[in-house]
Amino acid sequence: MSLASLENLSIRFGDRQVLSNINLRIEAGARVGLVGESGSGKSLTALSLMNLLPESAEASGVIHLNFGQHVKIDATQLGEDLPFPYRGAQIGMVFQEPMTALNPLMRIGDQIGEVLALHRPDLNTKAHIGQLLEEVDLRADMHRRYPHELSGGQRQRVGLAMALAGEPELLIADEPTSALDMITQRGVIDLIKRIASARQMGLLFISHDLGAVAALCDQIYVLEKGKLVEHGDSQTILKNPQQPYTQRLVAAAKPTKRPEFSRPAQREPLLEIDGLTRQFRQKRYFWQSPDITTAVDQVSFALHSGETLGLVGPSGCGKTSLSRMVAGLDSAQGGSVQFDGHRFGHGVGPIPMAARREISMVFQDPFSSFDPRMRMQDALLEPLHLMPELTTAQKQKRVHEAVQRVGLSIDMLNRYPHAFSGGQRQRLAIARAIVLKPKLLILDEPVSALDVSIRGDVLALLHDLQEKFGMAYLFISHDLDVVRAVTDRVMVMDHGKIVEHGKVEDVFDHPQAEITKKLLDARLTI
Amino acid sequence: DELRLGMVLEPPHLDPTAGAAAAIDEVVYANLFEGLTRIDQNGAVLPSLATDWSISDDGTRYEFTLKEGVTFHDGTSFDAEDVKFSLDRARAEDSVNAQKGIFAPITNVEVLATNKIAIEIANPQGDFLFNLGRGDAVIVAPESAETNQTNPVGTGPFKFVDWQQGSKVILEKNPDYVGDDVYLDRAIFTFISDPNAAQNAMLAGELDGFANFPAPETLEIFEADPRFNVVVGSTEGETILATNNKAEPFNDLRVRQAIAHVIDRQAIIDGAMFGYGTPIGTHFAPHHPYYVDLLNTYPHDVAKAKELLAAAGYESGFKATLKLPPPTYARRGGQILAAQLREIGIELELVNVEWAQWLEDVFTKKDYDLTIVSHVEPFDIGIYANPDYYFQYDNVVFQALIEKLNITNDEDDRKALAAAAETILADDAVNGYLFQLAKTGVWDTRLSGMWPNSPVEGNDLTQVKWAN
Amino acid sequence: MRMFKQFASNFRHPSFAIGFVLSAVLIVLALLSLVWTPHPTDGVNIAARFGSPSLEHFLGTDFFGRDIFSMLMAGALTSLRVAVLAVGIGMVVGVPLGLLAAGHGGWLERLILRFNDFVFAFPAIITAIIITTLFGPSAINAMIAIGIFNIPVFARVARGGALSIWTLDYVDAARLSGLKVWQISVRHVLPNILSLLIVQATIQLSLGILAEAGLSYIGLGTQPPETSLGLMLKEAQSFFLAYPMQAVWPGLTIIIFVMALNLMGDGLRDQMDPKLSKAGGINVAG
Amino acid sequence: MVGYLIQRLLGVALTLLVAAALIFFLLDVLPGDPARFMLGINASDEALNALRQQLGLDQPAFVRFGQWLMGLFTGDLGMSASQRAPIAELILERMQLSLPLAFGALVLSTLIGLPLGILAAQNQGKIGDAGLMGLAQIGIAIPNFWFAMLLVVVFAVTLKWLPPGGFVPWAENPAAAFRALILPTIALALPQAAILARVMRTSLVDVARQDFIRTARAKGLSKNQALWRHGVRNALLPVMTIMGLQFAFLIAGTIIVENVFYLPGLGRLIFTAISARDLFVVRSALLVLVGLVVIIMFLVDLLYALVDPRLKKRAGN
Ligand SMILES: Nc1ncnc2c1ncn2[C@@H]1O[C@H](COP(=O)(O)OP(=O)(O)OP(=O)(O)O)[C@@H](O)[C@H]1O
Ligand SMILES: Nc1ncnc2c1ncn2[C@@H]1O[C@H](COP(=O)(O)OP(=O)(O)OP(=O)(O)O)[C@@H](O)[C@H]1O
Ligand SMILES: [Mg+2]
Ligand SMILES: [Mg+2]
Ligand code: NI
């Protein structure tokens, strides 16, 4: 008898069917992965096992639970009124957002103690709480801390400790690592794996990241738009995906290197950065000396036309800060930028208009990069402010060219942003970046927010554009596989400093710096 | 026995010899402080601290005999020196007495004995004894004169107990009073400015009465309530549409006459005062024996008014401002008046002003066209003889008449002179004469001895008592 | 078209629909009083006072014999005018301040925040007392006093909304396009916080009507012969026991007006992007 | 924490200083002569000048501002021009009414508003919620003076349970003083309670959607348990800010309600002083009101920092 299973589970919101006929079983001690794109219904599946579905959800089907004794639950009965003693006791759950999943006003020790008080009052002691904290690789004396005094990874460990406190037989983890950076993510996944096997728990692990699932689970279920498309042993599925959807997922998880193209040789670099420094100072009271975070510390590098330079590093190392200075969005506290005959930076002055039109940027989040109240047409025209010499018709023409370049049709331009999908928006963001025909394009995590299946297309588009226009790319990403696939050279950044710099193959194959090794180790490949 | 009496305004302080506010007198007059004479509820002069007096033949020297055995509430004794001190203080150069004019004619005050005093005045004065009976002329002691504002010490049948600022003043029977005993043991004056709150307080039984209830519109309720008596008396308040006789176009008699023709007094009394008030045709109190009925000098006649206005060159009317001080009679009356004057094309811009501003702009600077105000001084027709008074009415004939009146003692002559003066004012339509302000008292039916009229400002409680 | 559809979609929200219809009726009646009322409001007819409802005066007549319904129309107009202009003052001064604070940051932002706190310490009634002491009471004073209090309210909402907009990438994209801070504030920030401001404006409008009533009641607001709902209520208070309906009509009108505006504001708020609505909206009464 | 305190206290002091300057100089340019008003219309010029000198009106404005500021510290605010009593004493006397009234209303509105708001949030979308929020809508829309009047008519005039107004000093008869404040406090508190109930409901509904409530439920807490143990405290944070702001309105409300109940509070003091053109009293009393508001807002900030560990941290704990 399996620990828990779903039989023909369907969920509707009003007349919108979001899950249909899901069958899924979790054996005692088995580690089961559930993958699928955003919105495919992964979380709802997990929540139905916890009887925590939103009130407006209408479920049908059967849920079997077997903790010592077999219980059959009619899914239509799910809801607040259904007696459900398993939550926190036999079933523990960890949620995605470490930042918001803990009560900000309560010490973490007390939050863990609350579970014990509910389910294991005999164990509700400081010592036991300390033990739980240690089990998830935290120090026992951290129990007095408040959530905001912990890093994201630490918070996620607290969430795990809370889920474990009731000594559950089944642990559900809904994307517990997606909000964490690579290195931390790896740590948490290893921790879950270790604990699950040590405690002999059943595990339902939810992720959109095939790599993470592969690292952790022995069985995989694949969800597409509320339907189960494939399931089975993880090695089998990863090696030999049957369904086209699964195949796409697997393919996207292993980006392939694009072919080289010829570039005119040049001596003068397009961009030359010299000792660029950015500090954030936070002064609380006027008599205090300020807290200084050095986000970018004496960074120097050069970039030639037509070249792609990768920038990697752990979260918070200063990648975005650096790129914003290069784009002239932020002013530097030290050092300067030499770009295509213009100089700006500390002690030189702000970015000149002439340089501004040669540098563009594509942002990470396609949803926030367009003003929701502005038609695409106007949004794309906006950069052409920098070219007052063009007539309205010429500007229009430029916009149309750019849109066609990114593979979209001109008649879409009358729409507002909300009428586009994420992938389309990112294409439009790229279109906006190239209407000026810039010489340098800064790409800050341009594909991280996109579903894996779309990533490949956008990367291919970027590659094509570079080939046509010969732009230089400064490509920021935390995904080392992507970086390896698209860049020529790579810089590794840590604590504001460039710690390693070289041809991408050299750096990745023979890492020198400690952080590079860590980053490479943390990779979850399938 | 205790009496809880409501008042609209709280006195700024309690010294009647140092302030114009009527609220001061309404608490202390005749109760706490006494003068040489006192005024009874019909306006007659009676002995008080002076038991009797004699007047020289030429009318310039008064000799008073004082009551004996009287002490002030602080225990100090009362004698002629106190009288001399009080009168000299009131007429001194730096006096802050609000009615310095009363004392202006005094040339000398002389102590004849501890219980005898003589006062000499420059010219004979018909109303001198009356004036000595007013609140501004009460006798104070040198020991306490400076502190009377917060801790009044007088000779009256009640003494001061407590003043809860913003709320109430408490008086208590003076056991050492020489004279007729009063019936009440305590009197509490509670200050309620909001008419609605006043009404609620009465209905809820928190108060025994209001000597002058602030909202005539609510009297209907009290009249229907068997617990209360509504007593309508008269005051000395002539409510007039004061007119700036020097300002264009009011310097034209025909314009003033036109206004007089178009004023519908009864509508104003009904609309503003809910029927309480007596129409007047000149600046004189109807209850006064000298009063002449001049209501029909300019009868209500819109056509005539238009004619007069046209004759003055204002066929299509004109615009003017009407400044209105806070009392209801002014604010409501102003609206009604504006509607009436509109009939002949006079468009009034209503400007609401606070008293302080009224005093400054209208009274002092004479910067106004029209205003509505009640002149509450008794027998104050003499103000029209002052060309600098804010009416700016300058009539030599009238001035001579008043001069004569002031020095005339013979009752019949005085009456004739007053009648002539009244008629001149009515004919000249110096101001619009509207109505005599009524005193609308509301009090518990079991109370007796409350004054229905108020010939002087004050609430004389000496005769007030509860039935059984 | 899109605007209209968006607007129409609000009607699916019942409280918005009710609030909108009621407010619209009241506002139209108030505006109508500019050109027409069933009976003149400046006429005084003492003989006809306290008339009970009839075909001619369907809410009866007041203590001057004026038609109550006409008075309500005119009174609502004054109340509305005070409230609208007060909101206008608040928005015209407050919104730019808020945008400036969010866009500029640094010392300027701190200064504006200080200023906000400072003005918050002066409830409308205190400002009204000061202004009245200086210039005497009038509806304009009430309007200015309420308006001054509205300034920090709108500055706060605008800044809160603008701050959340400034973190978005499209603002950076606009900066890359060479737009200056004020251009971004006008082109991108303002349109995106507009719905937030409109919601706050409806709420402040309702509060303005209440505040005007309170100020008129203690004599700091509208003065006769002008009329406003608050003043009518005040004047009717002393007839309450004898003629209760005199106070009921203006009282009801105020309650309905305020509730209608509030319901409309709530409905709008519910329809809005929840992230934005949390940014700075405050709901305080005057 | 101490640093934060000092910073905020300096802010409060600065605010008060600016407020004092604003009030002083605004009222100083006022038209109207207190001396003439006090002495009445027949006063002579000499008497006027004498009084002006006595009141210090002949000194330059800056000197008088300085003196006034000093007076604020020493408690010597000078004499009331119209009432001839120390202003500080007048104000203190009125505070024995205004303070209990404002604070009483704050406490009462909290005691009523918060539980109702929580109740409504718990029943979100159900009949109870709709009913409570409908009531709250009415509560917010009723002009408070009108509500006060209805209370008087019902409970004082008709039922005679409570006095229709007036006040007895605490020292004289504490029970009567308390009784006198019941109706005014209710009149002030109920509309405020309606606002608080709404704010509390909105805030709690917001919090209920947050992840940590779901976490709490995953621990095995029921929906209501989770709301009570984790939701309410978090929801209180934004409510506290509103309560701080509301206090300003309670102060304003006392001025209005004092009128209905003829209570000798600060508002009445100010109005009498204004009609007497007694600006010395007006400015000091106004500053006291503003000071109260500023101090309450400061206390709310402080409380906020105490309740929210994130702020305590930021405050340099
Ligand atoms: N409370 C709700 N009301 C209406 N629709 C909902 C609700 N919760 C989820 N949905 C819809 O149900 C579908 C599945 O949601 P679910 O949260 O399970 O997706 P997911 O696979 O977990 O996605 P993600 O990777 O983004 O977390 C989505 O289309 C979502 O919009
Ligand atoms: N506006 C700011 N004020 C204060 N500190 C900041 C600010 N922006 C960034 N920082 C700090 O500077 C450091 C570098 O931040 P940055 O955003 O450049 O990192 P990143 O490498 O882009 O990280 P991620 O991979 O998470 O995007 C971090 O410690 C961050 O907290
Ligand atoms: Mg999910
Ligand atoms: Mg970044
Ligand atoms: Ni359209």
TrEMBL record, chain A:
Presence of keyword ATP-binding: yes
Annotated Gene3D superfamilies: P-loop containing nucleotide triphosphate hydrolases
Ranges where the ABC transporter domain occurs: 4-250, 271-520
Entry-linked SUPFAM superfamilies: P-loop containing nucleoside triphosphate hydrolases
GO biological process, one term: transmembrane transport
UniProt keyword terms in alphabetical order: ATP-binding, Nucleotide-binding, Transport
Pfam families: ABC_tran
Keyword Signal: no
SMART domains registered for this protein in UniProt: AAA
GO MF term set: ATP binding; ATP hydrolysis activity
Record family assignment: Belongs to the ABC transporter superfamily.
NCBIfam families: PRK10419.1 (NF007739), PRK11308.1 (NF008453)
Designated name of the protein: Peptide/nickel transport system ATP-binding protein
Native source organism of the sequence: Maritalea mobilis
From TrEMBL, chain C:
TM region(s), chain numbering: 80-103, 115-136, 189-220, 240-263
Subcellular location: Cell membrane
Xref: SUPFAM superfamilies: MetI-like
UniProt keyword Oxidoreductase, yes or no: no
Signal peptide: none
Entry membrane topology: Multi-pass membrane protein
Annotated GO CC locations: plasma membrane
Top-level taxon: Bacteria
Domain ABC transmembrane type-1: 76-265
One of the GO biological process terms: transmembrane transport
Keywords: Cell membrane, Membrane, Transmembrane, Transmembrane helix, Transport
CDD domains per UniProt: TM_PBP2
InterPro entries per record: BP-dependent_transpt_permease, MetI-like, MetI-like_sf
Family: Belongs to the binding-protein-dependent transport system permease family.
The protein, known as: Peptide/nickel transport system permease protein
Record organism: Maritalea mobilis
From TrEMBL, chain D:
Keywords (A to Z) from UniProt: Cell membrane, Membrane, Transmembrane, Transmembrane helix, Transport
Membrane topology note: Multi-pass membrane protein
Keyword Membrane: yes
Record Pfam families: BPD_transp_1, BPD_transp_1_N
Domain ABC transmembrane type-1: residue ranges: 95-298
Coiled-coil residue windows: none
Keyword Transmembrane helix tagged: yes
Source domain of life: Bacteria
Any one GO molecular-function label of the UniProt entry: dipeptide transmembrane transporter activity
Segments crossing the lipid bilayer: 99-120, 132-157, 177-199, 235-257, 285-307
GO annotations of cellular component type: plasma membrane
InterPro entries: BPD_transp_1_N, MetI-like, MetI-like_sf
Subcellular location field: Cell membrane
Protein family according to the UniProt entry: Belongs to the binding-protein-dependent transport system permease family.
PANTHER family: DIPEPTIDE TRANSPORT SYSTEM PERMEASE PROTEIN DPPB-RELATED
Protein's recorded name: Peptide/nickel transport system permease protein
Organism name: Maritalea mobilis
